[in-house]
Every structure is written in C-alpha cells, then in structure tokens.
Design goal:
Helix 2 packs across helix 3. The chain contains 3 helices and 29 strands. The chain is mostly beta strands and 431 residues long. Its main location: periplasm.
Length: 431
C-alpha cells in the first residue's frame, strides 16, 4: 500500500505518568533554557543508547540500534547537541552517565507486532537523576522515523524553549538523466519522494504557507510556467501562471493569500503582486533593470529582491507600505538569491567574492551589518532558512555537481545533509 508522506496517522498517547509530574513543573515557566544564539555556547552532551524491547537482546537487535541511530542523527542535526558514541558504554541503557560526560540520556523502548510498532522515549536529566520529558507513539513500521523526529523536536524544545526542526520537509531539484525534477525529503534524506515527472527542466520549488501545496516553474510546455501541486497526492498539478515569458520563483505572504512573482510578459522581468489564484493585483517594478528573486519579511511589510539596475546584480529593499526602494548591498561583485529569515530581520544571500559565491547575512533595515559566514573555495548557492531561523541550507557546487549542505547561521557546523545520485540544487525548507 502506497505510503503518503503527509497522511501519517500517529496515535500520540498520554505522557508517562510515572516520574513526570514533578518533571513537568521543572520545565514550566521557571525553567532556564539553554541559549543557542551564540557560537560560544557549549554543545549539550546526550547519550542515545540502543532501544530496549521485551524478550530481545540489544546486542543482536538491528532494529534497536537503528532506532537509536536515527534519533541520535536527528538530535545532532540541530548543531547544538553532541552525541556520546555508543562505543563508550556498549550501547546499554545502564551506565555511569556522569562518568561518560552526559548531560541527558534518551531511554527508548519499542514493541513491534507484524507491521505495527509502538515507541516510548524518555529524557533523563543526568544531573538531577530524573525524567523530565517522555512521550509514546504508535503506528506502522514505516512511520517510525516520523515518530522519532517528533520526539526529537520535543527534546530540543524542552532544552531550548524552541521546537526542533527534525519533523520538517525539504524540497529540492534533482538533475539526473538530462531532466530536472522536484523531490521532497526529510532532514536526513532517509525518505525521499519524487514530486514532478515532467522529464524536462524544472526549477525554483516554493512551499505555500499554511497549506499542503508546492509551487514550481517548469519548461515542459515550451514556456516557463508556474505550477502548483497538492503534496497529499501524486497525480495532478495545475498551472497557476502561464503568461508568455518568465513565471518564476514566487515569494508567498505568510497566510498564503498573495505572492510576489517575476513575470516578463512585457519583455522585461519585473515583480508583480498576485493573488493565490494567479491574478495580477499590482506591478511593483517597471523596467528598472532585471528584477527577480523576491523574498518577504514575516510581517509582509518589507521586500528584498535582486536587480541589475546599477549594472550588476545587487540586493534592493522595498518598503511594501510606501513602495520606496533602496539598494542594500555594496560588497561583492554580484549579490543574489536572498532569503528572509522567518524569525529575524536577517536576509541570507549568495555573494560573489574573489570569484567564489559565498554566503552572507545582512539586516536589510541596517545594510551596514553584512557578515560573511562561509569562506571555503566551493560555490555556495540558493540559501534558505530553517523554520526556527537557526540554520541555513544551500546548494554547494564543486565542479559541475551540486549537493545540499547545511550550516548554522553563525557559520559553524557546515555539513552535507545527504547523498543521492544526480545533482541537487534549489533547496527549500518548509516553514
């Protein structure tokens, strides 16, 4: 039976009663959360021993190890957690955790019957020697990753006050066999799903906020049209804008009711305000160079876009209340592909410096705050923020191939997210 990524039914049971009453008071309004906004913060040491189950040996149980490994990878993904290797304690749940340097331990149990599985996970505070958070999940075996991602996000929220991003989706373009198609994956690349099958050039996937929809641009009819598809199904997609020329890379308002789209129906690529049915409301730019790559502030009052009106591609800011425009980038020979953080007045973008595209962040309302966060010799392209505003994903290009990488917003913890055949580009994180 075909699995549907978004119709997973998880029976989230009641939180453990034993030992948790006092624990929930500890993580209430008086809890001191860890500050993860500074690079000087020490990483949290967490042990994730192999899961236990009745009547089975941990040592020989591959499922017990896989469950622990998946959860450990999801926790480590957040860049604030260091996982204590199981080799240091044999993978067993009973160890001298203080001696191993653990701040917290996740103690997991599972019960598998045919194609069903139930998981129980508890978070042990080593210093206090008490359980501070636990949850239970049940569902089909092919839903076990999703269950663990949900628990991972609860652990991160317990420790930082901000939910984690493990149970989120990343869309990207995969170039393979002369075609570029849209794919969808979890953060670890364990569950990858192909979305489009146009067998042609497809670019710029964009999630529509507060919906199950995804938009993208494709050339398969001969014109670069904008399409929208419901991710709960795999059979149909429909054109949202098919005006002659470019219909490219919309920036959606937070409620999904409007978008800003690049159209070239009059010859010059300009920015237009459209409703969610694809009807034009207003033209925002008018032939002042090429105008592309719009990105909106969370409140919808500010717009950053790319224009070559000064000769080379640079970032510009438009106040959506007054329509006043001003240039905000002056360093780097080219600056492009901006993305506005969902939580801060920060825009990440790709800047051409000494022949290499590097990632930079800037407060568009204070343009003198530019900070370069990469400096290696590979190209860093198409950056996009995580839903919590702490991380950035991007396409890293070495030679002709792109791969999806992640990095913390302060420039630390750069790593490849997953490996698959082909070349992956245009990553977009669902928010």
């Amino acid at each position: 039976m075909k699995q549907k990524y978004f119709s997973i039914l998880l029976a989230i049971l009641t939180t453990f009663a034993i030992c948790l009453g006092a624990a929930y008071q500890a993580i209430g309004s008086d809890r001191v959360y860890l500050d993860i906004s500074t690079s000087a913060t020490r990483k949290i040491n967490i042990a994730v021993p192999w899961f236990e189950t009745a009547g089975s040996s941990q040592t020989n149980n591959l499922l017990a190890r896989d469950l622990a490994d998946t959860l450990a990878k999801a926790l480590k993904f957040h860049g604030i957690i260091s996982i204590i290797p199981t080799e240091q304690y044999g993978g067993m749940q009973h160890a001298d955790w203080k001696d191993k340097g653990a701040d917290y331990v996740v103690l997991g149990r599972y019960k598998k019957e045919n194609d069903s599985i139930a998981l129980e996970m508890r978070l042990l505070d080593v210093a206090e020697n008490k359980i501070i958070m636990g949850k239970s999940f049940s569902g089909s075996v092919n839903q076990k990753d999703r269950m663990q991602f949900k628990y991972c996000d609860s652990v991160v929220e317990t420790l930082t006050g901000i939910p984690g991003v493990a149970d989120t989706r990343i869309a990207f373009i995969n170039h393979q066999d002369s075609a570029k198609e849209v794919y969808l994956t979890d953060i670890l690349g364990r569950n990858v799903r192909q979305i489009t099958r146009h067998k042609h050039l497809t670019v710029s996937p964009r999630f529509v906020p507060d919906s199950y929809n995804l938009t993208y641009s494709s050339y398969h009819t001969g014109n670069q049209n904008l399409y929208i598809t419901d991710l709960r199904q795999d059979k149909t997609t429909r054109a949202l804008s098919r005006r002659k020329g470019l219909n490219l890379a919309p920036a959606w308002f937070k409620n999904g009711s409007k978008m800003i789209l690049t159209l070239s129906k009059r010859g010059n690529p300009d920015l237009y305000l459209l409703d969610d049915k694809g009807q034009i409301i207003e033209q925002l730019t008018d032939r002042a160079g090429i105008n592309v790559s719009p990105t909106l502030s969370p409140d919808g009052n500010h717009l950053v876009f790319v224009s070559d009106r000064s000769g080379r591609p640079q970032l510009y800011h438009m106040d959506m209340r007054t329509r006043k425009v001003q240039r905000i980038t002056f360093e780097g020979s080219e600056n492009a592909e901006p993305d506005w953080s969902p939580t801060d007045n920060l825009v990440v973008y790709s800047s051409l410096r000494d022949g290499v595209y590097q990632l930079c962040v800037v407060n568009p309302l204070q343009p003198d705050t530019v900070m370069q966060i990469t400096n290696d010799l590979s190209h860093h392209e198409s950056p996009n923020w995580s839903p919590d505003g702490n991380q950035i994903i991007f396409a890293k290009r070495d030679g002709k191939r792109h791969q999806i990488y992640g990095i913390m917003k302060n420039g630390s913890f750069q790593r490849r997210l997953f490996t698959m055949p082909g070349s992956q580009s245009y990553p977009q994180w669902a928010r």
